[in-house]
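Priority: medium. Attachment 1 of 2:
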């Protein structure tokens, strides 16, 4: 929430050392919150939350001219849906018998900044709520027997460490600009960062006072830019350059074009100009396009200066098209785009054809499809979907529904005399649902038998493909290899492509086949993950021909086949779903992999050709059978 009276002032944005991209992205959103929010990706301790908190002090505050400071609201990862969206006012329901809304964090953020640290770890059902509220500026509540809505126009700022997992595509694309931040490597800059932080900690008020003039200058610049934004013109040639650049860099969807055009207008306004220029597009391109590009899952994230320069040269070299033809049709936009007034702040109008010197006017509408759809199921934690009486006792109380039931009963009994506040019959059991998520543990024979290289390439490629799917499903992937005398966990459970990039580059092959230790290592990974998150479903996928020539290290001397069967029986006893992919490539199959699958109680498949695509598809038939 905003700083309480008497609390020290936040660290000034103008005192932040370096981080020019981050400061620019935040300032542009203060000018035009409709840009869609700022995603800050980077390591811990790089000033992400400091900059976000400082932004709120520069904003004008809620609409209506109350003069109240702009709020800064932090959305905790563990927040409940009631806390975020709002819920039934229990006191009013009990004492007055009235159903009215008790506002949540979305209402508190109206006119200010809503900050979500570790936004990539936010619960899925809250992500969905956040996306809708940020897109429409209105929070609509239809639950617990009440219907209400309220404005919640805020700048969304999220931060994340990519090594802890990637962000769902729905939310990633909703962020207008994304910034990569890291602590400076230059010793002189690091020294200055520490010097300023120590000075602030010693005397927050005095430190803020030394930057008061700079902060006032930023406030004036923001206010003046917001005032002229509605009249800023984005010429046709700039719009055409924007679309060509997005196409050159293979940006997904049309949101990148929209953000670049709107951002160019905001940047021009912040600079005191009434017309956007090609330089504005070039300045904002890395922030608007890096997180939207179609790229391979093992490619480095971001947009290098060289790539941008080459793309700009190609985009600027292309001859302009027919000026009478729109550069992109509103009907083509994935979220629907319509004209809105004669300027960025104008009154809403219907769609209109572009004219020379068209003034930027865009409106985001509800998307028609849902990415990453997956099954929902009952869960102890998750979104509340219903409430019902329970004859077996209530273990998860649906408070609002209970209060409503009690209030309704008391209203009926009031005519006959005093009534109990709450009776046992009023209690309601909460019914919750959460999206199911999986952990796929690939267990791959990396021994020196024929076809080892093919198996390993297929496993690495399948892991990559599954990680792409994990972007949408919140699934995780792990990889265990076994060769020589031991098994090793090459990739611990992750949903992060960046982690996989570092782990899967070089996986050695060769030696004997310790099938038993490999199965046990995969089981350990699955058990450990299930213990940490009981709602995550582990699936072990074993890629093998079923041969076992080693029981493990010399200290574990024994029957290799017996060790493999014992490990398979342990997997079956643990109740963990499994799939055996028969990698026997000979014309005459020995049937060892099928015998292994029977001992594991596992699914069994023979692929016509073992490659990344066929292996990934085989895994998905088990993970998503519907």
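Attachment 2 of 2:
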């Amino acid at each position: 929430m905003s700083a309480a009276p008497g609390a020290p002032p936040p660290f000034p944005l103008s005192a932040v050392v370096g981080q020019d991209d981050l400061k620019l992205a935040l300032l542009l959103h203060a000018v035009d919150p409709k840009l869609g929010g700022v995603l800050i990706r980077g390591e811990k301790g790089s000033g992400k939350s400091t900059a976000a908190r400082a932004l709120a002090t520069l904003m004008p505050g809620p609409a209506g001219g109350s003069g109240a400071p702009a709020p800064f609201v932090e959305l905790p990862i563990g927040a409940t849906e009631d806390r975020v969206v709002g819920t039934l006012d229990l006191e009013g329901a009990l004492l007055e018998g009235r159903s009215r809304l008790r506002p949540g964090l979305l209402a508190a953020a109206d006119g200010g900044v809503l900050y979500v640290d570790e936004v990539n770890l936010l619960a899925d059902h809250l992500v969905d709520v956040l996306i809708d509220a940020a897109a429409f500026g209105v929070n609509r509540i239809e639950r617990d027997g009440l219907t209400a809505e309220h404005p919640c126009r805020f700048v969304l700022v999220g931060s994340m460490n990519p090594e802890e997992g990637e962000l769902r595509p729905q939310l990633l694309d909703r962020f207008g600009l994304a910034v990569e931040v890291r602590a400076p490597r230059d010793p002189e800059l690091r020294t200055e960062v520490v010097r300023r932080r120590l000075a602030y900690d010693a005397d927050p008020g005095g430190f803020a006072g030394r930057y008061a003039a700079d902060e006032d200058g930023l406030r004036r610049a923001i206010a003046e830019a917001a005032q002229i934004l509605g009249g800023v013109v984005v010429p046709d040639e700039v719009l055409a350059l924007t679309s060509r650049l997005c196409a050159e860099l293979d940006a997904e969807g049309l949101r990148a074009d929209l953000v670049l055009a709107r951002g160019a207008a905001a940047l021009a306004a912040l600079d005191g100009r009434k017309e956007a220029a090609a330089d504005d597009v070039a300045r904002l391109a890395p922030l608007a396009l890096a997180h939207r590009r179609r790229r391979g899952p093992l490619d480095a994230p971001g947009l290098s200066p060289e790539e941008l320069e080459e793309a700009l040269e190609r985009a600027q070299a292309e001859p302009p098209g027919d000026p009478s033809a729109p550069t992109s049709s509103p009907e083509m936009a994935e979220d629907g785009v319509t004209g809105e007034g004669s300027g960025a702040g104008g009154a809403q109008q219907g769609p209109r054809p572009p004219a020379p010197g068209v003034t930027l006017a865009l409106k985001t509408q509800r998307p028609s499809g849902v990415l990453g759809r997956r099954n929902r199921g009952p869960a102890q934690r998750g979104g509340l979907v219903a409430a019902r009486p329970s004859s077996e006792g209530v273990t998860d109380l649906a408070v609002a529904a209970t209060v409503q039931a009690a209030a309704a009963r008391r209203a009926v009994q009031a005519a006959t005399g005093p009534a109990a506040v709450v009776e046992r019959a009023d209690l309601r059991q909460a019914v919750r649902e959460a999206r199911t998520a999986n952990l796929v543990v690939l267990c791959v024979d990396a021994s020196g038998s024929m076809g080892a290289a093919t198996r390993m390439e297929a496993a690495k490629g399948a892991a990559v493909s599954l990680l792409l799917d994990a972007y949408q499903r919140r699934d995780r992937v792990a990889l265990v290899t076994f060769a020589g005398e031991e098994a090793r966990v090459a990739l611990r459970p992750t949903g992060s492509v960046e982690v996989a990039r570092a782990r899967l580059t070089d996986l050695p092959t060769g030696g004997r086949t310790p099938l038993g230790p490999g199965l046990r290592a995969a089981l350990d990974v699955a058990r450990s993950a299930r213990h940490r998150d009981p709602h995550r479903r582990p699936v072990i996928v074993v890629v093998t021909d079923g041969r076992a020539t080693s029981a493990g290290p010399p200290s574990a001397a024994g029957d290799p086949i017996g060790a493999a069967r014992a490990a398979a029986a342990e997997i079956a006893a643990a109740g963990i779903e499994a799939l055996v992919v028969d990698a026997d490539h000979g014309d005459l199959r020995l049937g060892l992999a099928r015998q292994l699958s029977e001992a594991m109680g596992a699914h069994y498949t023979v692929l016509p050709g073992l490659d990344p695509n066929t292996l990934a598809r085989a895994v998905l038939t088990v993970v998503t059978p519907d």
